Amino acid sequence: MKISPEFLMIQEVSSAVIHEKDVEELLNKVLCILAQRMGMMRGTFTLLFGDTLAIEASHGIEARRQKLGQYRMGEGITGMVAENGKRCIVPDLRKDARFLNRTGSHTYPYQVAFICVPLIQHNKVIGTLSIDRQVESDSNLEQDAAVLEIVAGITGDAAARCIEIHEERAALLDENRRLRSQLCENPGHMVGTSREMQQVYTQLRQVAPSDATVLIRGASGTGKELLARAIVELSDRKGKPFVTLNCAALPEALVESELFGHERGAFTGAVTRRIGRVEAADGGTLFLDEIGDLTPQTQVKLLRFLQERTFSRVGSNQELHSNVRILAATSRNLEEMMAQNLFREDLYYRLNIFPIIMPALSSRKSDIILLAEHFIEKMNLRYAKKITRISPRAMNALMEYPWPGNVRELENCMERAVLTTQDECIRLHNLPPSLQPEPDISQQNANATGSLSSLLAHYEREILVKALERHRGNISAAGRELGVSPRMMNYKIRKFSLDVNNRVQ
């Protein structure tokens, strides 16, 4: 019995589907089989990505032109077949205005038919398979379309897998871009690339999308409020009220009123009703700075609010509700305060759900120059300056200084430097006196006048002071450095009226 060419072609396509594991390569192989067995001149697999049909595999079309083959649903013959899920036969491409020829490859001087069939997966159109075929006297286009529908059914799973692969790649690229963005762009307006700050950024991104209470800890000037604002920027409450209250900046009698509001006549001077910060922040975020300075009485009321999200204005018994997220900050040691009964333990645990510690500037020295340059740019805009660099000596001074005032002190320092700089460079003498190198003791004594014994005594005293400073008042350590016994060190300290903290008595 003679086997038909169509049957052999379908058998060959089925074999390719079984043995070819690379689904993208499989589609190209199927088109090659159609070209060899069916007399196809050009052909395409067009797949649906989102709401756009794009050529995934082609035969007889240049790669650079393949990218032009994109259609919306219902657009052209390809879009029409994808939209209605029915095959379409165009006997002569030259005479059908519906054929768009987006790639510019389907131009013929003779009669060529275009056959397009849908690719269907789970009763859903996921693309099309189309071919160009020269029309001859014995051509049977209906039979060709039926065979093409069989091929489309065999390759439907491979086409669906191609779409999945593209979606997976797109998801990986999006995730890669997101991760790169997180690594390269600091949240909010925070500056710093040190390991300590990267840990802060990680914690920030973890807690920001939630409504969890955050307790921000760190010394004064480390940027606790900036961190609070960054949390809001990455939260669902962005664009909603962000209300701050510095608990240490108000008299004790006014803190409760500022927090919860008061009614008219609640106390002397309360001539009108006033809503508090909790009420003003409804729907948004309330940032309580220096939470450790709250009075015990206010701590009790804040605890109740954190538990129930209800409160009463001063002078009123009416229960009010506020949907507000609490961010708190403190530079105090709350654990020590609890041990001294100055801070409520239950309030501490309510606030300490997600603690974040802002590092001191001295522990993130790699960020000092980066921060300095950031503040220079900021001050350039403020004071219409054009400062572009910091001299090496000034950089050294910035790096060696301990920065007890942290980032706030650095910002003030750079503002002063920008104001005093006359050209485009900040130099050592533009920095505050606290950052200037200490004068040479030996040179001071060389220029001093007086008797030899008084000069020697002055010189000896300065050596002792510097040694004690270097060792933070540790007499034994300073003595070992100078090669002086503890007994002699104590004698010298008494002689020059020094204490272990290097202060003159």
Written account of the structure:
With 505 residues, the protein is of the alpha/beta class. It has 4 domains: 5-165, GAF domain (Beta-Lactamase, 2-Layer Sandwich), CATH 3.30.450.40; 195-357, Rossmann fold, CATH 3.40.50; 363-435, Helicase, Ruva Protein, domain 3, CATH 1.10.8; 441-495, Arc Repressor Mutant, subunit A (Orthogonal Bundle), CATH 1.10.10. 46% of the residues lie in helices and 16% in strands. The protein has helices at 5-19, 23-38, 63-66, 76-84, 141-154, 156-184, 195-207, 224-233, 252-260, 277-280, 296-308, 334-339, 345-351, 368-383, 392-400, 406-420, 441-447, 452-470, 475-482, 486-495; strands at residues 40-49, 52-59, 70-72, 88-90, 112-121, 124-134, 214-217, 242-246, 261-262, 274-275, 285-289, 310-311, 320-321, 325-330, 354-357, 389-390, 425-426. It has a 6-stranded antiparallel β-sheet, with helices on both faces. A hairpin with an 8-residue loop joins strand 12 and strand 13 (320-321). Helix 2 (23-38) runs antiparallel to helix 6 (156-184) and helix 18 (452-470) crosses helix 19. The longest helix has 29 residues, at 156-184. It is elongated, with a radius of gyration of 39 Å. It starts with a helix and ends in a 10-residue tail after the last helix. The relative contact order is 0.06. The mean pLDDT is 86.
